[in-house]
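User: Here's a structure from my thesis project, written as structure tokens. My advisor, Dr. K., wants to see whether a designed sequence matches the one we expressed. Can you design one independently, without my sequence as a hint?
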């Protein structure tokens, strides 16, 4: 053997790649794994776009775990065990990968134990309730809504890995195709929901990765140019087609169909409150696009009258001066010009914000002081545009606390509420009479601005003898000890944050709001807003219910707010002297309507203004500390657990490879076979006629004494009968370093895989090398 026998040969790696490609029917497991990881990573990144701040690290950890599990699953085909045992091992690997992926994405490990399944199911159900009708990207901060959305990544990636790498001969093409379908769903489902930039460029990347998935693992080098040309040709043909398809209008507008005699058209709304199961449209149709400098609640109608059972719109202020309820000295910063474009909405009222004092439109409209703008010459329809000039206050908490408790007498009507007549029931109530008076003998109110209705003993007696006695007592208890009107509003709003559940199918009761407050404690925006407005009026604070739409989602490309039927909503408006009508939203953030009290898109006044008081600072500090504590203590151990799981899967794969190599040895010594294959894998040529003595001498010349010493120990162990002188882990480490010295980190990693710290299996066989 000449000196070239132990020199690094450039062709060695090519032959090794060919050997790797020969596995699994001519496919390269490494290339298949890389294609899987790239395609899964692209899909996971797209899926993360469903959230405003996606956890990129967690998504990458899930993809890594799935790819590592796939390698381990593929390696089980070469274990010399019975088929049922191999199948069981694969199933265990899939379950382990699923558990590790769930923990990596953020599911607490305690919930994966059998005793935690009930709690996990409940939390996911709650998350689904919020996620099923939210908009994208999800911006609110509810933990389980965010986590439920993220669960789609492991739910698709882990099964895709199992299908892609599951050893099968006849069914392999079907399994690979099923895995590709799951990965395409992972990409396509969020891509159709989130309007991200450069869709054509992202589509080209997807096309390239799908091509790599289909062909790269079995593609020969000489076919690379032809494959690249075919891929480029397909991309060139797809570009003009995709550009032609890039339009906002639907080819087939199914939303206007009437199937099975449906009663709702999904385009119009009855804003009066009913409190039964929600009947608003939930098709996800875009109702409006709004161009505005700030997000606001888009008001359709003001519900100014509580008739003893429900909140409705009265005609008390019809044709009144739209500026009559504006403060005498308006802050010019709160005047806004807002442009509305009607998409799928049909409405006989104009949608606007705050108090509208002028409208630029081709329609004939009539305004009122309460902010409701009627359309006289036919309803709004698709394509209509108009500009609303509106006064939309956005005060700070300090400004609202400084507002005087008294108010002009014209706002006393916003403290009115009726007590139900004998025999009245929401179970049998009909539609409200359009000509019903705003005041009747059962109407009670504050006797003067700044006082509460019960200040008059006769009125107090009437309330306490009515079905609303408990509601009145609750209102007075929440107002007790509060120094300002704003503090009372905050006290009432905080009351709904604990013990109440958002649900769009509450039971309809005879007296809906008392039943909501004290019996059912479940409801949607109508119950929350109606109850809060009633409690405030019982405290003598001018309040009313506003109905319309939540701000919606801002389109990053057009900068417009996209308002859908899912954003239909109701909230509360409270009058502050010197400021105007300010919105407050007591509905929990799990409601389908977007950007509510906890949403980033909500007007600051809806969450109580920019509170700089001691109470607000204290609450923020407590919240931050709690978040830091829960995130800091639970986040690190989760990350450590995920890394440990990945390391365990890697070690399992390494163990399987070593086992397979050892078991492939038939009629030979594993230590010598390992030596030969390690040298060949690292690029050293070892002809079949090479003896151990010759190899020892050549390695001493080519790499140094450490490598020669390792071969010397093997030679003595084999021929001198010195079994006690088997190479130690230290000998193996020196030998590995000598072979990879000065050849870079990739070669060192290859050396570690070829010569792990200690041989896992040793058993004697006949010699493979001569003496």
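Assistant: Designed independently from the structure alone:
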């Amino acid at each position: 053997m000449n000196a070239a026998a132990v020199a690094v040969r450039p062709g060695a790696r090519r032959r090794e790649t060919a050997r790797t490609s020969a596995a699994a029917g001519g496919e390269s497991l490494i290339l298949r794994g890389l294609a899987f990881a790239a395609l899964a990573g692209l899909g996971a990144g797209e899926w993360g776009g469903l959230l405003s701040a996606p956890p990129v690290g967690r998504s990458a950890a899930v993809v890594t775990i799935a790819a590592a599990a796939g390698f381990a699953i593929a390696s089980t085909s070469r274990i010399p065990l019975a088929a049922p045992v191999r199948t069981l091992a694969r199933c265990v690997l899939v379950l382990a990968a699923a558990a590790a992926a769930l923990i990596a994405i953020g599911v607490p490990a305690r919930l994966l134990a059998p005793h935690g399944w009930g709690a996990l199911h409940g939390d996911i159900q709650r998350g689904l309730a919020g996620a099923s009708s939210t908009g994208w990207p999800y911006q609110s901060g509810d933990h389980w809504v965010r986590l439920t959305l993220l669960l789609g990544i492991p739910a698709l990636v882990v099964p895709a890995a199992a299908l892609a790498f599951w050893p099968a001969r006849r069914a392999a093409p079907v399994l690979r195709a099923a895995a590709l379908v799951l990965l395409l769903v992972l990409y396509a489902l969020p891509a159709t929901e989130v309007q991200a930039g450069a869709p054509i460029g992202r589509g080209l990347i997807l096309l390239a990765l799908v091509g790599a998935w289909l062909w790269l693992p079995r593609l020969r080098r000489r076919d690379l140019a032809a494959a690249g040309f075919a891929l480029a040709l397909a991309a060139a043909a797809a570009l003009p087609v995709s550009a032609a398809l890039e339009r906002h209008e639907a080819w087939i507008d199914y939303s206007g169909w009437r199937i099975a005699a449906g009663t709702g058209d999904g385009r119009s709304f009855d804003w009066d409150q009913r409190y039964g199961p929600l009947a608003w449209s939930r098709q996800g149709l875009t109702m409006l696009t709004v161009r505005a400098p700030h997000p606001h609640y888009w008001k359709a109608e003001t519900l100014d009258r509580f008739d003893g059972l429900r909140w409705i719109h009265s005609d008390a202020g019809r044709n009144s001066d739209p500026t009559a309820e504006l403060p005498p000295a308006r802050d010019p910063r709160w005047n806004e010009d807002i442009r509305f474009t009607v998409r799928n909405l049909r409405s006989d009222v104009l949608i606007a914000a705050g108090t509208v004092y002028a409208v630029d439109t081709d329609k004939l409209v009539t305004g009122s002081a309460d902010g409701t703008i009627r359309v006289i010459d036919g309803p709004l329809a698709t394509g209509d545009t108009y500009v609303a000039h509106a006064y939309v206050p956005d005060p700070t908490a300090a400004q609202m606390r400084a507002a005087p408790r008294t108010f002009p007498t014209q706002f006393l009507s916003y403290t009115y509420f009726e007590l139900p007549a004998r025999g009245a029931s929401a179970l049998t109530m009909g539609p409200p009479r359009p000509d019903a008076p705003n005041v009747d003998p059962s109407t009670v109110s504050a006797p003067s601005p700044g006082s509460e209705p019960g200040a008059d003993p006769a009125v107090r007696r009437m309330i306490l003898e009515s079905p609303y006695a408990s509601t009145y007592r609750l209102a007075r208890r929440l107002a007790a000890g509060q120094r300002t009107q704003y503090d009372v509003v905050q006290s009432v709003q905080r009351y709904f944050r604990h013990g109440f559940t958002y649900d769009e199918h509450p039971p309809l009761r005879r007296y809906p709001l008392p039943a909501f407050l004290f019996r059912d404690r479940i409801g949607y925006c109508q119950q929350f807003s109606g109850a809060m407005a009633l409690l405030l009026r019982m405290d003598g604070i001018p309040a009313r219910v506003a109905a319309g739409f939540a701000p919606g989602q801002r389109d990053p490309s057009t900068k417009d707010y996209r308002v859908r039927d899912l954003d239909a909503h109701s909230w509360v408006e409270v009058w502050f002297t010197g400021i105007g009508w300010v919105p407050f939203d007591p509905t929990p953030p799990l409601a389908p309507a977007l950007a509510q009290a906890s949403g980033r898109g909500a007007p600051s006044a809806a969450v109580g203004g920019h509170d700089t008081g001691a109470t607000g600072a204290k609450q923020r500090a407590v919240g931050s500390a709690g978040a830091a504590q829960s995130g800091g203590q639970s986040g690190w151990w989760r990350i450590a657990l995920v890394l440990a799981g990945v390391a365990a899967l890697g070690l399992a794969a390494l163990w399987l490879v070593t086992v397979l190599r050892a078991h492939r040895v038939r009629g030979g010594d594993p230590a010598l076979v390992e030596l030969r294959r390690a040298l060949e894998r690292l690029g050293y040529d070892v002809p079949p006629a090479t003896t151990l003595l010759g190899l020892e001498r050549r390695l001493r010349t080519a790499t140094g004494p450490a490598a020669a010493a390792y071969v010397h120990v093997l030679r003595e162990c084999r021929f001198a009968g010195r079994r006690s002188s088997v190479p130690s882990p230290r000998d193996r480490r020196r030998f590995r370093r000598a072979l990879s010295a000065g050849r870079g980190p990739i070669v060192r990693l290859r050396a570690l895989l070829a010569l792990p710290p200690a041989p896992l299996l040793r058993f004697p066989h006949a010699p493979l090398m001569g003496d």
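When you compare it with your expressed construct, this may help: The first strand starts at residue 286 and ends at 291.
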